[in-house]
Every structure is written in C-alpha cells, then in structure tokens.
Write a structure and sequence with these properties.
two-stranded antiparallel sheet, mainly alpha
Length: 176
C-alpha cells in the first residue's frame, strides 16, 4: 500500500484529506485481504447504522449534524442562564443561613469571599448539562476526523447559527 491510499479499516477506508465525496465515488478502492473484495470509502459517522451511502443520505446527515450543533449551543446558553440563576439562589440561601450578605473584602477587584453551598438540584443539573455538552463536543470531533467537508461545514455553520440564536443568553452570567 502506498502512502497516498486511504487506511484499511474493517468497514472501509478513510481518506486522510479533506473531500466532499459521499462514500467512494471516484474509484479509490482498497483490496480486502480476507475476502478479496473491494472496500469502498463509506463514512461511519458515529455507529455502523449511520453510514451515508447516497447523496440524499449525505444531505440528511449534514442536516442532522447542523441541528445537533445548534442544540449544543442551546445547551451552552441554558447552562449560562442557569448558572446566573443558581448563583443568585445560592447567595439567598447563604444570606438566610448566616443572616447577612457575603462581604466584598478587597477594594481592588472586589473579590468575593464566598463559596456557594452544595445544592443537589443545582449541582447535579449542572453536571448533567456539562456532560451532555461535552459528549456532543467529542462526537463533533469524531465527525471532523472523517475529513468530510460537508460534515465539517455543517458543524461550523450550525455552531455559528446556534451562537447567533442563543449566544446572548449564555452571557447572562456577566450581567451585574
């Protein structure tokens, strides 16, 4: 095998350069050494059931990736809004407990000496939202590693549209 060919995998080959092709439409085939049959460059997106083999399947996959990218930005915005809400609730709970507001000790930068209490409803929700967002980010990374430009553009445009729609909500934590 020369260095210009794709890598041989159990389900096909991987083209190690950026491309738009749905599967292997240009005739780049590798020989499966066990069955003596050509392997085509089909792209398993995340699991073996999601292998777009036609142009329509590629468009559907790009639309699905676009929507998932928008959802990832929505989760980030929800986390930002909830962080602001949770910090306000924690401040209220702490002030009720100590019958005073947390002090600002330093005149330079106004650093608060306050650690919010562990509130299971807040902290477990925060962890679940963070885990969902991280899972999507890693799945996006795996998608980009297919080097399929249609997938990459769908993710980038979806993240941009999602940030345009929901980005202002994620920055609520900076409002005083």
């Amino acid at each position: 095998m020369s260095m210009d060919d794709g890598m041989t995998l159990a389900v096909g080959n991987m083209l190690s350069y950026l491309h738009f092709t749905p599967g292997d439409t240009r005739g780049l085939y590798l020989l499966n050494h066990t069955q003596q049959t050509p392997l085509t460059g089909l792209y398993t997106v995340w699991f073996l059931g999601w292998v777009p083999q036609s142009l329509g399947a590629m468009v559907g996959t790009c639309i699905a990736l676009f929507m998932l990218a928008v959802i990832e930005r929505w989760i980030a915005a929800c986390r930002g809004v909830m962080e602001f809400h949770w910090s306000q609730q924690a401040l209220i709970i702490a002030s009720d407990k100590f019958n005073t507001l947390p002090i600002r000790s330093s005149p330079i930068g106004f650093i608060k000496r306050f650690t919010p209490p562990f509130i299971p409803a807040h902290d477990i929700s925060r962890g679940v939202m963070f885990a969902a967002q991280t899972l999507l980010d890693y799945l996006f990374m795996l998608t980009v590693m297919t080097f399929q430009l249609g997938f990459i553009f769908s993710l980038v445009v979806g993240l941009g549209v999602g940030e345009t729609l929901f980005g202002r909500f994620g920055s609520v934590t900076h409002v005083h």
